[in-house]
TrEMBL record:
It comes from the Bacteria. It is a multi-pass membrane protein. GO terms for molecular function: glycosyltransferase activity. It is found in: Membrane. Keywords: Glycosyltransferase, Membrane, Transferase, Transmembrane, Transmembrane helix. The chain crosses the membrane at residues 35-55, 75-100, 106-123, 130-149, 155-172, 231-249, 284-302. It is an enzyme of class 2 (transferase). This is Decaprenyl-phosphate phosphoribosyltransferase. Its EC number is 2.4.2.45. Its main location: membrane.
Amino acid sequence: MKSPYLAALRPRQWTKNLIVFAAPLFAFSVNLESILGSFLAFALFCAASSSFYLLNDIVDVEADRKHPVKCKRPIASGAVSIPVAIAMAVVLLGGAVIIGWMRSRWLGATIISYALLQVAYNLKLKRTVILDVVAIAMGFVFRAYAGGAATKIPLSPWFLLCTAMLALFLGVEKRKAELRLIKISGGKTRAVLRRYSFGLLERMESVVTNGAILTYAIWSSGPQVNGASTPWMMLTLPFVMYGIFRYQLLSDPEEIARRTEVGNEGEVGGQSERPEEVLLKDRPILLTVVGWVLTSFAILWLKTQGIIIR
Protein backbone atom coordinates (compact mmCIF):
# COMPACT_ATOMS: atom_id res chain seq x y z
CA MET A 1 0.00 0.00 0.00
CA LYS A 2 1.42 3.39 -0.98
CA SER A 3 2.46 5.65 1.87
CA PRO A 4 0.17 8.71 2.18
CA TYR A 5 3.27 10.88 2.63
CA LEU A 6 4.67 9.69 -0.69
CA ALA A 7 1.27 10.03 -2.36
CA ALA A 8 1.05 13.65 -1.14
CA LEU A 9 4.21 14.39 -3.17
CA ARG A 10 2.40 13.29 -6.37
CA PRO A 11 5.24 11.16 -7.78
CA ARG A 12 3.25 10.56 -10.98
CA GLN A 13 3.88 14.21 -11.82
CA TRP A 14 7.65 13.75 -11.65
CA THR A 15 7.81 12.62 -15.27
CA LYS A 16 7.59 16.33 -16.17
CA ASN A 17 11.05 16.75 -14.68
CA LEU A 18 12.63 14.22 -17.05
CA ILE A 19 13.27 17.11 -19.43
CA VAL A 20 16.41 17.93 -17.39
CA PHE A 21 18.04 14.94 -19.12
CA ALA A 22 17.56 16.63 -22.50
CA ALA A 23 20.57 18.93 -21.98
CA PRO A 24 23.33 16.26 -22.25
CA LEU A 25 21.39 14.27 -24.84
CA PHE A 26 20.71 17.24 -27.11
CA ALA A 27 24.32 18.41 -26.71
CA PHE A 28 25.69 14.92 -27.44
CA SER A 29 27.55 15.03 -24.15
CA VAL A 30 26.48 11.77 -22.53
CA ASN A 31 29.01 10.67 -19.91
CA LEU A 32 29.05 9.75 -16.24
CA GLU A 33 29.46 13.34 -15.07
CA SER A 34 26.61 14.69 -17.18
CA ILE A 35 24.32 11.80 -16.22
CA LEU A 36 24.99 12.32 -12.49
CA GLY A 37 24.44 16.06 -12.90
CA SER A 38 21.14 15.43 -14.67
CA PHE A 39 20.00 13.04 -11.94
CA LEU A 40 20.78 15.71 -9.37
CA ALA A 41 18.75 18.30 -11.26
CA PHE A 42 15.91 15.79 -11.63
CA ALA A 43 15.87 15.05 -7.89
CA LEU A 44 15.97 18.75 -6.97
CA PHE A 45 13.11 19.64 -9.29
CA CYS A 46 11.08 16.69 -8.00
CA ALA A 47 11.59 18.06 -4.48
CA ALA A 48 10.78 21.64 -5.49
CA SER A 49 7.67 20.74 -7.49
CA SER A 50 6.39 18.40 -4.75
CA SER A 51 6.73 21.20 -2.21
CA PHE A 52 4.24 23.25 -4.22
CA TYR A 53 1.89 20.29 -4.66
CA LEU A 54 1.82 20.10 -0.86
CA LEU A 55 1.23 23.83 -0.48
CA ASN A 56 -1.55 23.77 -3.10
CA ASP A 57 -3.30 20.93 -1.29
CA ILE A 58 -3.02 22.82 1.98
CA VAL A 59 -4.55 25.97 0.50
CA ASP A 60 -7.33 24.01 -1.22
CA VAL A 61 -7.96 21.56 1.62
CA GLU A 62 -11.50 22.73 2.42
CA ALA A 63 -12.59 22.72 -1.22
CA ASP A 64 -10.94 19.32 -1.76
CA ARG A 65 -12.85 17.81 1.16
CA LYS A 66 -16.11 18.66 -0.62
CA HIS A 67 -14.94 17.19 -3.92
CA PRO A 68 -15.99 13.59 -4.69
CA VAL A 69 -12.48 12.61 -5.91
CA LYS A 70 -10.06 15.12 -4.38
CA CYS A 71 -11.40 14.35 -0.92
CA LYS A 72 -9.29 11.18 -1.07
CA ARG A 73 -6.03 13.16 -1.33
CA PRO A 74 -3.77 12.54 1.70
CA ILE A 75 -4.10 16.05 3.17
CA ALA A 76 -7.83 16.42 2.47
CA SER A 77 -8.54 12.98 3.93
CA GLY A 78 -6.48 13.68 7.04
CA ALA A 79 -3.93 10.94 6.34
CA VAL A 80 -1.26 13.68 6.33
CA SER A 81 -1.74 16.52 8.81
CA ILE A 82 -1.37 20.13 7.70
CA PRO A 83 1.57 20.89 10.07
CA VAL A 84 3.46 17.86 8.75
CA ALA A 85 2.69 18.85 5.16
CA ILE A 86 3.99 22.39 5.80
CA ALA A 87 7.19 20.99 7.31
CA MET A 88 7.66 18.64 4.36
CA ALA A 89 7.19 21.51 1.88
CA VAL A 90 9.68 23.76 3.67
CA VAL A 91 12.31 21.02 3.89
CA LEU A 92 11.88 19.96 0.26
CA LEU A 93 12.00 23.46 -1.23
CA GLY A 94 14.71 24.73 1.12
CA GLY A 95 16.84 21.66 0.53
CA ALA A 96 16.44 21.92 -3.25
CA VAL A 97 17.55 25.56 -3.27
CA ILE A 98 20.54 25.01 -0.95
CA ILE A 99 21.83 21.89 -2.70
CA GLY A 100 21.24 23.44 -6.12
CA TRP A 101 23.16 26.58 -5.15
CA MET A 102 26.04 24.47 -3.83
CA ARG A 103 26.21 22.62 -7.14
CA SER A 104 26.00 25.74 -9.30
CA ARG A 105 24.79 29.27 -8.72
CA TRP A 106 22.95 29.07 -12.02
CA LEU A 107 21.19 25.89 -10.90
CA GLY A 108 20.25 27.44 -7.57
CA ALA A 109 19.03 30.61 -9.29
CA THR A 110 16.95 28.50 -11.70
CA ILE A 111 15.24 26.66 -8.84
CA ILE A 112 14.54 29.97 -7.11
CA SER A 113 13.10 31.37 -10.37
CA TYR A 114 10.93 28.27 -10.71
CA ALA A 115 9.70 28.73 -7.14
CA LEU A 116 8.84 32.39 -7.75
CA LEU A 117 7.00 31.38 -10.93
CA GLN A 118 4.97 28.82 -8.97
CA VAL A 119 4.05 31.44 -6.37
CA ALA A 120 2.95 33.87 -9.09
CA TYR A 121 1.05 31.10 -10.89
CA ASN A 122 -0.89 30.03 -7.81
CA LEU A 123 -1.63 33.56 -6.64
CA LYS A 124 -2.62 35.12 -9.97
CA LEU A 125 -1.43 33.60 -13.26
CA LYS A 126 -3.51 30.41 -13.16
CA ARG A 127 -6.60 32.61 -13.23
CA THR A 128 -5.31 34.85 -16.05
CA VAL A 129 -6.15 33.80 -19.60
CA ILE A 130 -3.14 33.10 -21.88
CA LEU A 131 -0.65 33.88 -19.11
CA ASP A 132 -1.67 30.65 -17.39
CA VAL A 133 -0.45 28.66 -20.39
CA VAL A 134 2.70 30.79 -20.70
CA ALA A 135 3.50 30.14 -17.03
CA ILE A 136 3.18 26.38 -17.54
CA ALA A 137 5.55 26.61 -20.50
CA MET A 138 8.08 28.64 -18.52
CA GLY A 139 8.15 25.90 -15.92
CA PHE A 140 9.39 23.46 -18.57
CA VAL A 141 11.96 25.95 -19.84
CA PHE A 142 13.35 26.32 -16.30
CA ARG A 143 13.60 22.54 -16.04
CA ALA A 144 15.47 22.31 -19.34
CA TYR A 145 17.82 25.12 -18.36
CA ALA A 146 18.45 23.45 -14.99
CA GLY A 147 19.68 20.37 -16.83
CA GLY A 148 22.30 22.49 -18.56
CA ALA A 149 23.23 24.33 -15.35
CA ALA A 150 23.65 21.08 -13.39
CA THR A 151 25.86 19.53 -16.08
CA LYS A 152 27.62 22.78 -17.07
CA ILE A 153 26.64 22.17 -20.67
CA PRO A 154 25.95 25.30 -22.78
CA LEU A 155 22.52 25.08 -24.35
CA SER A 156 21.60 26.10 -27.88
CA PRO A 157 19.05 28.93 -28.00
CA TRP A 158 17.15 26.85 -30.56
CA PHE A 159 16.89 24.05 -27.99
CA LEU A 160 15.39 26.42 -25.42
CA LEU A 161 13.02 27.92 -27.99
CA CYS A 162 11.90 24.45 -29.07
CA THR A 163 11.32 23.53 -25.43
CA ALA A 164 9.20 26.63 -24.96
CA MET A 165 7.15 25.91 -28.10
CA LEU A 166 6.56 22.28 -27.14
CA ALA A 167 5.57 23.31 -23.61
CA LEU A 168 3.13 25.90 -24.97
CA PHE A 169 1.74 23.20 -27.24
CA LEU A 170 1.15 20.91 -24.23
CA GLY A 171 -0.51 23.76 -22.34
CA VAL A 172 -2.89 24.52 -25.19
CA GLU A 173 -3.75 20.84 -25.62
CA LYS A 174 -4.40 20.59 -21.88
CA ARG A 175 -6.90 23.45 -22.07
CA LYS A 176 -8.62 21.83 -25.08
CA ALA A 177 -9.02 18.58 -23.20
CA GLU A 178 -10.35 20.37 -20.11
CA LEU A 179 -12.97 22.23 -22.16
CA ARG A 180 -14.13 19.08 -23.85
CA LEU A 181 -14.33 17.09 -20.61
CA ILE A 182 -16.40 19.85 -18.99
CA LYS A 183 -18.74 19.83 -21.97
CA ILE A 184 -19.13 16.06 -21.72
CA SER A 185 -19.58 15.85 -17.95
CA GLY A 186 -21.45 19.12 -17.50
CA GLY A 187 -19.44 19.89 -14.38
CA LYS A 188 -18.36 23.24 -13.01
CA THR A 189 -15.63 25.11 -14.85
CA ARG A 190 -12.79 27.21 -13.51
CA ALA A 191 -13.04 30.95 -14.18
CA VAL A 192 -10.07 31.03 -16.55
CA LEU A 193 -11.59 28.33 -18.79
CA ARG A 194 -14.58 30.59 -19.48
CA ARG A 195 -12.21 32.89 -21.37
CA TYR A 196 -11.12 30.12 -23.72
CA SER A 197 -12.98 28.67 -26.67
CA PHE A 198 -12.18 25.85 -29.06
CA GLY A 199 -11.73 28.41 -31.84
CA LEU A 200 -9.16 30.42 -29.88
CA LEU A 201 -7.29 27.31 -28.74
CA GLU A 202 -7.16 25.90 -32.26
CA ARG A 203 -5.58 29.14 -33.52
CA MET A 204 -3.08 29.09 -30.67
CA GLU A 205 -2.42 25.41 -31.37
CA SER A 206 -1.60 26.19 -35.00
CA VAL A 207 0.96 28.84 -34.01
CA VAL A 208 2.78 26.79 -31.37
CA THR A 209 2.72 23.60 -33.46
CA ASN A 210 4.39 25.38 -36.36
CA GLY A 211 6.82 27.02 -33.95
CA ALA A 212 7.75 23.74 -32.28
CA ILE A 213 8.39 21.88 -35.53
CA LEU A 214 10.26 24.80 -37.08
CA THR A 215 12.55 25.42 -34.09
CA TYR A 216 13.32 21.71 -33.76
CA ALA A 217 14.05 21.47 -37.48
CA ILE A 218 16.45 24.43 -37.25
CA TRP A 219 18.17 22.98 -34.18
CA SER A 220 18.56 19.56 -35.78
CA SER A 221 20.03 21.02 -38.99
CA GLY A 222 23.43 21.26 -37.35
CA PRO A 223 26.18 23.45 -35.89
CA GLN A 224 26.07 25.97 -38.73
CA VAL A 225 22.97 27.48 -37.06
CA ASN A 226 24.23 26.95 -33.49
CA GLY A 227 22.10 23.86 -33.21
CA ALA A 228 22.93 20.16 -32.91
CA SER A 229 26.52 19.02 -33.31
CA THR A 230 25.57 17.12 -36.46
CA PRO A 231 22.90 17.64 -39.13
CA TRP A 232 22.20 13.90 -38.97
CA MET A 233 19.81 14.76 -36.14
CA MET A 234 17.38 15.68 -38.90
CA LEU A 235 16.64 11.95 -38.95
CA THR A 236 14.81 12.38 -35.64
CA LEU A 237 12.43 15.03 -36.98
CA PRO A 238 9.78 12.47 -38.07
CA PHE A 239 9.53 11.20 -34.48
CA VAL A 240 8.90 14.73 -33.19
CA MET A 241 6.29 15.42 -35.85
CA TYR A 242 4.47 12.13 -35.23
CA GLY A 243 4.53 12.68 -31.46
CA ILE A 244 2.95 16.13 -31.88
CA PHE A 245 0.31 14.87 -34.28
CA ARG A 246 -0.50 11.91 -32.03
CA TYR A 247 -0.93 14.21 -29.05
CA GLN A 248 -3.24 16.42 -31.13
CA LEU A 249 -5.32 13.34 -31.90
CA LEU A 250 -5.65 12.50 -28.21
CA SER A 251 -6.91 16.02 -27.43
CA ASP A 252 -9.26 16.24 -30.42
CA PRO A 253 -12.85 16.72 -29.20
CA GLU A 254 -14.24 13.96 -31.42
CA GLU A 255 -11.49 11.56 -30.36
CA ILE A 256 -12.16 12.30 -26.68
CA ALA A 257 -15.87 11.67 -27.24
CA ARG A 258 -15.08 8.36 -28.95
CA ARG A 259 -12.79 7.24 -26.11
CA THR A 260 -15.34 8.07 -23.44
CA GLU A 261 -17.89 5.73 -24.98
CA VAL A 262 -18.54 2.60 -22.97
CA GLY A 263 -16.83 -0.51 -24.26
CA ASN A 264 -13.81 1.11 -25.86
CA GLU A 265 -11.34 -1.24 -24.18
CA GLY A 266 -11.50 0.75 -20.96
CA GLU A 267 -9.81 3.79 -22.46
CA VAL A 268 -10.56 7.14 -20.91
CA GLY A 269 -10.79 10.28 -22.96
CA GLY A 270 -9.01 13.50 -22.18
CA GLN A 271 -5.66 11.96 -21.38
CA SER A 272 -3.93 14.97 -22.93
CA GLU A 273 -5.14 16.91 -19.92
CA ARG A 274 -2.43 15.00 -18.05
CA PRO A 275 0.83 14.88 -20.06
CA GLU A 276 2.49 12.49 -17.61
CA GLU A 277 -0.27 9.92 -18.17
CA VAL A 278 -0.02 10.23 -21.95
CA LEU A 279 3.69 9.43 -21.75
CA LEU A 280 3.14 6.46 -19.47
CA LYS A 281 -0.07 5.01 -20.94
CA ASP A 282 -0.28 5.81 -24.64
CA ARG A 283 1.72 3.14 -26.46
CA PRO A 284 2.29 5.04 -29.75
CA ILE A 285 3.59 8.07 -27.81
CA LEU A 286 5.85 5.85 -25.70
CA LEU A 287 7.19 4.05 -28.79
CA THR A 288 7.82 7.41 -30.45
CA VAL A 289 9.88 8.57 -27.48
CA VAL A 290 11.82 5.29 -27.47
CA GLY A 291 12.41 5.60 -31.23
CA TRP A 292 13.68 9.15 -30.84
CA VAL A 293 16.06 8.17 -28.03
CA LEU A 294 17.42 5.12 -29.87
CA THR A 295 17.95 7.07 -33.09
CA SER A 296 19.69 9.88 -31.21
CA PHE A 297 22.00 7.46 -29.42
CA ALA A 298 22.74 5.69 -32.71
CA ILE A 299 23.77 9.01 -34.26
CA LEU A 300 25.87 9.80 -31.17
CA TRP A 301 27.63 6.43 -31.36
CA LEU A 302 28.31 6.77 -35.09
CA LYS A 303 29.71 10.24 -34.47
CA THR A 304 32.02 9.11 -31.67
CA GLN A 305 33.25 6.26 -33.88
CA GLY A 306 34.14 8.74 -36.62
CA ILE A 307 31.67 7.17 -39.06
CA ILE A 308 29.74 10.44 -39.09
CA ILE A 309 32.22 13.27 -39.58
CA ARG A 310 29.86 16.17 -39.00
